[in-house]
């Protein structure tokens, strides 16, 4: 398969105009969610934590995003997703690095990631970035929608 030309690729803060594209991508990371309802959650997070929301853009197309949330000492990597045809090209890695830098600026000392069991394929990605599994929560996202919990200590 030919490699994509990423010479016009960039990572920038998320804006309200990105919400449509981000909501679609969010379905990759949240297989239990309904897009319309989840869109509200993305907007709320963006309003609460605008400095923790980023998009990956290729030639004006939003192809990935990451969002974080901090409450007191608890920091959560809300979501990270890259469009299927752009996966495996290092974009997720760059988004995560950008997010972790922003979280450090906020003074976070540890980060949690809550991964739906259907997204267990992403666990090696987190391990590559020094996250470790610390447990699981049954029915965390709703009945039957269990979560694997990972943690990174800076
Ligand atoms: C998980 C996800 C964000 C990774 O993004 P990506 O752009 O494909 O990942 P990258 O190309 O930046 O990969 C970074 C590293 O992680 C590894 N990695 C990524 N996905 C992997 C997988 N499924 N299995 C094993 N390793 C993986 C890569 O091999 C790479 O390591 P390398 O540098 O040694 O080659 C992306 O696959 C995705 O959007 N998945 C669907 C949504 C999801 O599951 N989100 C996480 C739960 S919130």
CATH architecture: 3-Layer(aba) Sandwich
- Annotated CATH homologous superfamily: Gcn5-related N-acetyltransferase (GNAT)
Give the overall silhouette. Answer: globular
Question: What are the bound molecules?
Answer: coenzyme A
Main sheet attributes: strand count, strand direction, barrel closure = 7 strands, mixed
Q: Unreliable segments (pLDDT under 50, ≥5 consecutive)?
A: none
What is the structural class?
alpha+beta
CATH class value:
Alpha Beta
How is the topology of this model organized?
Elements: E1 9-13, H1 19-29, H2 35-48, E2 53-58, E3 61-71, E4 74-82, H3 91-105, E5 110-116, H4 123-128, E6 132-137, E7 147-153
Parallel strand pairs: 4-5
Antiparallel strand pairs: 1-2, 2-3, 3-4, 5-7, 6-7
The chain binds coenzyme A.
Short précis:
The chain has 154 residues and is α+β, with helices and mostly antiparallel strands. The protein contains four helices and seven strands.
